[in-house]
TrEMBL record:
Zn(2+) binds at H78, H82. This is Protein SprT. It is found in: Cytoplasm. GO terms for molecular function: metallopeptidase activity. Residues 16-165 form the SprT-like domain. Its cofactor is Zn(2+). Binds 1 zinc ion. The active site is at E79. Its main location: cytoplasm. The lineage of its organism: Bacteria, Pseudomonadati, Pseudomonadota, Gammaproteobacteria, Enterobacterales. Keywords: Cytoplasm, Hydrolase, Metal-binding, Metalloprotease, Protease, Zinc. Belongs to the SprT family. The gene is sprT.
Amino acid sequence: MTTLRLPIATQQAVMRCLRHYLALANHHLETDYPEPKVTYRQRGTTAGTAHLTQWEIRLNAVLLVENGQQFIDDVVPHELAHLLVYRQFGRVSPHGSQWQWMMERVLGVSATRTHCFNVLSVQGKTFTYTCNCQTHQLTIRRHNKIMRKESEYRCKRCGSLLKPADA
């Protein structure tokens, strides 16, 4: 796998955003939390993840480059809020009341749980499955689990077992 090279200006914009929100949080919470490590090795359709015990934020470089400032404005405070909540409250519900409070009251941003970026460029191969009411696109991971008879999946709407479309 080749690693996408991020422009230095993009990395600097990420760090400016991170430092801005960290300063807001430290002031509001009367703390002195250190700057978390930021890496660009998040893969797949996930925009970013917060690794709580490592005090690290992992960002998806492809989605960052494709979405620019909107990605920075949405994802960086979202992941930082996870780290801050962990330090303040310990392990709690990932997008629960503490996280929402941290996002809205401390960081001053909307508490949205998921991103709405186009993920076609990072989406892996999918496999078509059917149930009694519709078709479904399953990831290669879920497809392989079905093939190895490790898992089975049911439609949330009708409850019937998903079967490969070509079967």
